[in-house]
Amino acid sequence: MDPSTLNNAEMQQFLNQEKEKAMVNEMVAKLTSECWDKCITSTPGSKFSSSESACLSNCAQRYMDMSLIIMKRFQSMH
Question: Any idea which architecture 10-38+48-77 has in CATH?
Answer without folding.
Answer: Orthogonal Bundle (1.10)
